[in-house]
Predict the 3D structure of the following.
Amino acid sequence: MAKEQTLSIIKPDGVERNLVGEILQRFEQNGLRIVATKMIQMSRKQAEGFYDIHRERPFFGELTEFMSRSPVVVTVLEGENAVAKHREVMGATNPAEAAEGTIRKDFAESIGENTVHGSDSLENAAIEIAYFFAKIERVNAG
Ligand code: ATP
Ligand code: MG
């Protein structure tokens, strides 16, 4: 296993319900270390840019409207196998299918408002981290 970095977002429904501390704590308790974090509110255009791979999907409008509705917390997490580990802690996209004890099982209310985002590959993690963070904002980034 190798040390990796992944991009995590606490989505608007998570921030609105005051779940930031509880969610970040779950990452830390699962061996993921915060190496950068900040709160931002994305414009519609920034949300569309972030989810560009889903542009042709039927839920793209709903998704980007939701993601730009109110602030989000974007975080770079580091650890052994961080991409897969983070997705395991988040749980399945649809909370109805998420495993017991996962963030989405415990907090998400629908497949659309599912509380957290996590990169799905090491390659996308690098792209997503660069979308939100300058090198100077990431500890030990050289
Ligand atoms: P994310 O990329 O946010 O971490 P994911 O990788 O589990 O989630 P994706 O397939 O990449 O899932 O979908 C991106 C996001 O689009 C989902 O997290 C969810 O918010 C939204 N989404 C996916 N499928 C649907 C759907 N059928 N209806 C509404 N929203 C959806
Ligand atoms: Mg995804």
Summary: The first strand starts at residue 3 and ends at 10. The chain has a mean pLDDT of 97. The chain has seven helices and four strands. The radius of gyration is 14 Å.
